[in-house]
Design goal:
Blueprint (H helix, E strand, L loop, with lengths): L2 H4 L12 H4 L7 H12 L5 H16 L2 H18 L4 E6 L6 E8 L6 E6 L8
Antiparallel strand pairs: 1-2, 2-3
Amino acid sequence: MSSSCKWLSMESPCCPSMEPRILPNPSVSIPVLQGAVQQSYHFKPSYRKMWMVKQKAISQIYGDWKESYNKVPKLLQAQQSCFPGTICELQITPYYDGHRLWWAQDGNNNILPIAFAIVESESTES
């Protein structure tokens, strides 16, 4: 396998040139990454392959989604400890139904309630 193709293999570590491009801007577009690969390695990977490499790099930098969701209960517990009056509700459903998280804390004695929610999509149900 040539060195230009080896880093695209999902078994190998992520291309070393991708992490520095993704770290400061995780929303960098796939075409921009394709251009960087083309400039460095003189070939243009497919959109799908580049997307997979980007996902792998993001996982290496920030950890994977499952790992992050496993930390949510501790985050909520810390919020409730640090900010008395915080109300948290976590609904965990099978992956295909998505995940929902809601928390609120009145930081200004009922003058300005603050609430946050993380949902799987913007829909009437969520």
